[in-house]
Write a structure and sequence with these properties.
mainly alpha, Farnesyl Diphosphate Synthase, two-stranded antiparallel sheet
Length: 293
């Protein structure tokens, strides 16, 4: 399949839906909405929402059925990036090739923009036009669980606590699974739920999401070592400067890449019971280790 075209088409679909779902620049408070749009439409691969759409289609649903859940995942992801860049956390000045939200709008408004995007995510997802509202509730639960203290925020907290300390492999895996993996897993599971996956299919897509979620963070760790500011759109080498626990720092780049490739094969293997409708998911799994940004 032509993955580049698929990703571009799905990203455009998500972007259009996000513009329709969120308050516009002209609505008060204008500065807040401008800050939200600034970060949300700064570019990005839209990988999480695309995984939601792809999992829905692989499960027999239509991409339009899952567009609200897809938009919600991107709102949660963007909120996390805004907050991650703040001086109290990663203190990064660049995001996606341009000044971070707090460098343009100030720290206070950046915090509020992140808060508003997180809240908007659940508002958008709750409007999912599914005939079974129980399915919508389950999807909202998946997103909330993945974003909170038992997911992304929890992983971020342990990541901060571990800076400058010796971290063993189980702790490193915990950080990566929670900080990055849980939201990617939830993106896939929400799509599967809305698409009507049966118990066996849902379990298989969960295994896929877990593998892809972990490999995405390993690939990010490697790119922080080998990537460039031009390609990444942000500073590189920051993990080592901050003493962060990463796969390359613990295992080396070669072994990290081997593990990433192993996880990709595990993800693809999980889809063995699916037909051609799951081909985008297979292609995305392989793309993650090949990307340059």
């Amino acid at each position: 399949m032509d993955l580049d075209k698929y990703l571009a088409d799905r990203a455009a679909l998500v972007n259009n839906a996000l513009k329709e779902a969120l308050a516009g620049h002209e609505e008060r408070p204008k500065n807040l909405h401008t800050a939200m749009h600034y970060s949300l439409f700064a570019g990005g691969k839209r990988l999480r929402p695309i995984l939601t759409l792809a999992a829905c289609e692989a499960s027999g649903g239509n991409k339009e059925d899952a567009i609200n859940a897809a938009c919600a995942m991107e709102c949660i992801h963007t909120y996390s990036l805004i907050h991650d860049d703040l001086p109290a956390l990663d203190n990064d000045d660049l995001r996606r090739g341009r000044p971070a939200c707090h460098k343009v709008f100030g720290e206070a408004l950046a915090i509020l923009a992140g808060d508003a995007l997180l809240t908007a995510a659940f508002e958008i997802m709750a409007k999912t036009p599914h005939p079974d509202k129980g399915v919508v509730v389950k999807a909202v639960y998946e997103a909330a669980n993945a974003a909170g203290s038992l997911g992304m925020v929890g992983g971020q907290a342990v990541d901060i606590e571990s800076e400058g300390t010796e971290v063993d492999f189980p702790a490193l895996e915990y950080i990566h699974i929670h900080k990055t993996g849980k939201l990617i897993r939830a993106s896939v599971r929400c799509g599967a739920l809305i698409g009507g996956a049966g118990a066996e299919g849902f379990s298989a897509l969960t295994r896929y999401g877990e593998s892809v979620g972990l490999v995405f963070q390993i690939a990010d760790d490697i790119l922080d070592v080998e990537g460039s500011i031009k390609d990444m759109g942000k500073a590189v080498g920051g993990d080592a400067k901050k003493g962060k626990a990463t796969y390359p720092s613990l295992m080396g780049v070669v072994e990290s890449r081997r593990l990433a490739n192993e996880l990709v094969e595990r993800a693809v293997s999980a889809l063995s019971g699916f037909g051609d409708k799951a081909e985008p998911l297979r292609a995305i799994a392989r793309f993650i280790t090949e990307r340059k940004k």
